[in-house]
């Protein structure tokens, strides 16, 4: 029972954090060139491992298909509350 209550509390805190991040306005958007390295498919969506030109790698969740090994442009989005995420350029 305690484990169930703890898991439920963690889910509520995670959802509240996501809602706060979605409500925060975007402060800046930076564009980078990158290579798609690999993908993990999950119910029609892909979690892509993308290598940025400076040598670092990021994970990007996207519903559109992207070819492994291809060059692409991605954006680093920074919100006013400091939350940072990456997305493929539309």
What does this structure look like?
A hairpin with a 4-residue loop joins β2 (45-52) and β3 (57-62). This protein has one helix at 2-23; strands at 26-42, 45-52, 57-62, 71-79, 84-88. The protein is 24% helix and 50% strand. The N and C termini lie far apart (45 Å). The protein has a five-stranded antiparallel β-sheet, with no helix packed on it.
Which labels suit this protein?
5-stranded antiparallel β-sheet, 90 residues, alpha+beta, 5 strands, 1 helix
User: What summary fits the major beta sheet?
Assistant: 5 strands, antiparallel
Total number of helices = 1
Q: What order do the SSEs take from the amino end to the carboxyl end, as H and E?
A: HEEEEE
Please give the share of residues in helix: 10-25%
Number of strands: 5
Distance between the termini: 45 Å
Strands in their spatial order, largest beta sheet? 3-2-1-4-5
What sort of overall outline do the alpha carbons produce when their principal axes are compared? globular
Low-pLDDT residue spans: none
Structural class: alpha+beta
Radius of gyration: 16 Å
Question: How is the secondary structure organized here?
Answer:
Blueprint: H1 2-23, E1 26-42, E2 45-52, E3 57-62, E4 71-79, E5 84-88
Summarize the structure.
This protein has 90 residues and is α+β, with helices and mostly antiparallel strands. The chain has 1 helix and 5 strands. The protein has one helix spanning 2-23; strands spanning 26-42, 45-52, 57-62, 71-79, 84-88.
């Amino acid at each position: 029972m305690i484990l169930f209550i703890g898991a439920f509390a963690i889910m509520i805190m995670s959802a509240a954090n996501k809602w706060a991040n979605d409500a925060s306005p975007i402060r800046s958007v930076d564009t980078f060139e990158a290579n798609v390295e690999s993908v993990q498919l999950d119910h029609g969506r892909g979690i892509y491992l993308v290598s940025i030109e400076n040598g670092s790698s990021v994970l990007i969740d996207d519903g559109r298909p992207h070819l492994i090994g291809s060059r692409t442009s991605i954006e680093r989005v920074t919100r006013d509350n400091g939350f940072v995420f990456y997305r493929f350029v539309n």
